[in-house]
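Box 3.1 — From sequence to structure: Lysine-specific metallo-endopeptidase domain-containing protein
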Amino acid sequence: MYSALQEEAIQRAGRKGAPTPQAAPAPPAGRPRRFARSSCACGGGCPNCREESRPPGPRQARDGEAATASDAAEPLAEPAAAPSFRDCSERITGITDANERLETARQRAREYVGAARRALGAAPAAGTTYETALGRHFITPSAADRATIEDNYRRILGTLVPANYICNSQNICEGEQAFWIEADDLVHVCRPFWELSPTCRAIILIHEGAHDVGIGVAGAHPPNRGSAQYPTGDTAAPAGQTTAGRMDNPDAYAFFGAHIWRDTDTGRPCF
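Predicted structure (token representation):
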């Protein structure tokens, strides 16, 4: 059995070479983007959006929940030596610590994925967070479905490597927090991403990683969390929503992983 670091090294070696710093390319014309977009016209950078995306601290919990230890402090402790992500300079991102923030988000996303994979190896026990999270995000998955979901997480983990990211300036982004393009097989990180809470940054990376492995790329984009078809909070899945549909929804993977790792659901969407 490989350790997480060994697995990442193998995935990185087999997936892409080391990134070469260069100007961010414009997305190829006619190529579809699969993205996370703020619902606000500002793209997520106005004072209201910043207030909504602020993580719960010791004095304020999201939607009345008790603040979890994972979100109790802002900013999070940053890695000792963050990698230099492609084009994540102050000139492109507008901030001085983009590499550190992106690396912190990447590591947290990997932790969410790891927690989800460990949970999915067993049937859910009644009354547990795992049972609640399965029903809320994947509805009624069978044992075979859970195995497929776990394998999809394994594939998503392979996208959570430094070579898979590039930072873009506002002249390329169109209000998205991040987006994945099939043509260059990269996740493009935009300025609204930096305004998100640590939880939401990790959720966005899993969402885009799911697109990268083929989830939610055929036809219209699946419903985002917070929509009528995929509501937030302690709400049953609306009529018409199916396990198969959620298994092809990037948000289901992102929010399930966060739910399991945090031992509580997020109180609001990240988009």
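Summary of the box: The longest strand covers residues 176-181.
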